[in-house]
């Protein structure tokens, strides 16, 4: 007799399953399968549905589609060098980098390491900290779907910032599981240390959601949030390559679709 199998689906499991169904390329594959089924049986619109699915699958892996989706969300503009240099000399600010995922272990480092989004954010955060003279902070724990992690993002990033960039974190917040918790956990800690301005570093897709979460917490604390987005493009529409599938294009489209869904969900 086979033993009974108990399947429990907590929030992290439900979120993982939902994202697998709604993020590219799953919707396009489902539409293609439906269109093919209708075409095979002589139903109306089957060919059109199959064709549309193929076009959308192509576009979902292009830099151009990612750029159009990003512009539709209207992220804050990049900080100019003049704006950055104007902050030098102030003593009440901090550069706060938000986590975007880490690898639990990479053999070449024999340690955990930042994933692409976190690495890009951290590099820009270090660049800002060195040019403004402001201290560097990081917020990120173990996300809802990062069930394989045993070490919070902040601990891995603290080591990388100190060893690879020679710029230790002044503050490190490691309990957050999502963007709202990033704001709720990090801003009171910074306020207690006299911080009045925060250069908020995250990618352009995540920035609108991050600003909403942080400004809601920062206003009662008397802290000003200054968006410092990374990952913006000057132009990703005019080149033929922009309209051809690429790993970078697919990753950007997928990220912006994810961020749009998270915005609607209020997370």
TrEMBL record:
Pfam families, sorted? DUF218
Q: Does the keyword DNA damage apply?
A: no
Q: Which InterPro entries match?
A: Cell_Envelope_Assoc (IPR051599), DUF218 (IPR003848), Rossmann-like_a/b/a_fold (IPR014729)
> Which ranges does the record mark as transmembrane?
12-33, 45-61
| Span of domain DUF218 | 94-261
UniProt KW Transmembrane helix keyword: yes
The terms describing its cellular component in GO are:
plasma membrane
Keywords tagged on the record: Membrane, Transmembrane, Transmembrane helix
Task: Quote the protein name from its UniProt record.
Answer: Uncharacterized SAM-binding protein YcdF (DUF218 family)
């Amino acid at each position: 007799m086979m033993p009974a199998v108990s399947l429990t689906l907590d929030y992290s499991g439900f979120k993982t399953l939902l994202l697998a169904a709604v993020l590219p390329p799953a919707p396009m594959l489902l539409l293609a399968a439906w269109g093919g089924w209708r075409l095979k049986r002589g139903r109306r619109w089957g060919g059109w549905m199959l064709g549309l699915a193929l076009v959308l699958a192509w576009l979902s892996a292009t830099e151009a589609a990612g750029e159009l989706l990003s512009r539709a969300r209207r992220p804050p503009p990049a900080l100019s060098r003049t704006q950055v240099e104007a902050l030098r000399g102030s003593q009440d600010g901090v550069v706060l980098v938000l986590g975007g995922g880490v690898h639990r272990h990479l053999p070449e480092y024999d340690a955990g390491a930042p994933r692409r989004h976190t690495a890009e954010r951290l590099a820009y955060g270090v660049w800002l900290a060195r040019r403004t003279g402001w201290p560097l902070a990081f917020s990120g724990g173990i996300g809802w779907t990062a069930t394989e992690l045993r070490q919070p993002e902040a601990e891995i990033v603290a080591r990388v910032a100190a060893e690879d960039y020679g710029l230790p974190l002044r503050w490190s917040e490691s309990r957050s599981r999502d963007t709202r918790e990033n704001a709720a956990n990090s801003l009171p800690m910074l306020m207690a240390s006299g911080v009045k301005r925060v250069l908020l570093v995250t990618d352009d897709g995540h920035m609108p959601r991050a600003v909403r979460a942080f400004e809601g917490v920062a206003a009662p604390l008397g802290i000003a949030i200054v968006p410092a987005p990374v990952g913006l493009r000057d132009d990703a529409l005019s080149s033929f390559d922009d309209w051809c599938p690429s790993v970078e294009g697919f990753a950007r489209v997928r990220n912006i679709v994810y961020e749009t869904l998270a915005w609607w969900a209020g997370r």
